[in-house]
Write a structure and sequence with these properties.
single chain; 76% helix; 3 helical TM bundles of succinate and fumarate reductases; 4 helices
Length: 127
């Protein structure tokens, strides 16, 4: 027999009801940074190929990479690299069934965010 209350049941999770959690947002950001790193790697390969091709082509590629936009992309890539690395370490910890409590998982999430920012700043000033 058909369920007569079927239309009265709420849809869950729904965007108007669901509150994003730090762990889910950092997981999504890990995937985004991974894809962004692929694009940054392609840009770097283009720069190397231009250097191997000709002097004029290298000048064009170098102008793009050393422009303000290129600097911004490389800075973002540096942050993405640190973020992705720290998030990977966090997942290795979780894969060993450690630090899975909600409070500890949130601390790890904030640690990944803060650590990636701090490591990016340190790397920019060292290099």
């Amino acid at each position: 027999m058909a369920d007569v209350n079927r239309g009265n049941r709420p849809l869950s999770p729904h965007l108007t009801v669901y509150r994003p959690q730090l762990t889910s947002m950092t997981s999504i950001l890990t995937r985004i940074t991974g894809n962004a790193l692929i694009l940054a790697a392609l840009l770097t390969v283009w720069w190397f190929l231009a250097a191997a091709t000709s002097e004029e082509y290298y000048a064009t590629a170098d102008a793009v990479i050393t422009s303000w936009f290129g600097d911004l992309v490389m800075l973002g890539s540096l942050w993405a690299l640190w973020y992705h690395t720290l998030a990977g370490i966090r997942h290795l910890i979780w894969d060993n069934a450690m630090m899975l409590e909600v409070e500890t998982a949130e601390k790890l999430g904030w640690g990944v965010i803060g650590g990636s920012i701090m490591l990016t700043i340190i790397t920019v000033f060292i290099v």
